[in-house]
Amino acid sequence: MAHRIITQAVVVGARVFGRAFAEAYRQASATSRYAQASARGDDNLSSANTYASSGLTLNEACKILNVPPPQRGKTNMENVIERFKRLYDANDPTKGGSFYLQSKILRARERIELEVREAQEAAESEAFSKEGWKPK
Predict the structure, then answer these.
(1) How far is CA 2 from CA 5, 15, 94, in A?
(2) Is the pTM of this model over 0.70?
(3) How far is CA 65 from the centre of its chain?
(4) Whole-angstrom Cα distance, residue 117 to residue 136?
(5) DSSP-assigned states of every residue in the chain
(6) Nearest 5°: phi and psi at 71?
(7) Which of 92, 67, 27, 128 is nearest to 35 (CA)?
(8) Is pLDDT at 42 greater than 60 in this prediction?
């Protein structure tokens, strides 16, 4: 009788382990395919919509800070900074806040600043190409 219970436990354990392994393999495979497609540029994600180091899109960053997305690279940076400071201080781990949320808030501010900076650089480049080089 004891051998029957032990055999059942081994079979059930092997089944659970097998299913977990298969699911982990499926997820790893899907992640690998997504990374390859992103590297080739096959998907509809452009560098303007993603930020590789944090994985935040511009829309996610705007939702986190509760600010409107920049229109043609222009936004009220004072509003963004004010929202950032308030949320960052409210989630201070020494005051019982969450380090995870604090880091998400920081990455959201950085993502919005990156978008505005890239738009400004593009506008300056376009203005320079229209005007041409004019020495002083």
Answers:
(1) 5, 20, 54
(2) no
(3) 14
(4) 26
(5) -HHHHHHHHHHHHHHHHHHHHHHHHHHHHHHHHHHHHHHHT-SS--TTT--TTT---HHHHHHHHT-PPPBTTB--HHHHHHHHHHHHHHT-GGGT--HHHHHHHHHHHHHHHHHHHHHHHHHHHHHHHHH-----
(6) -100, 115
(7) 27
(8) no
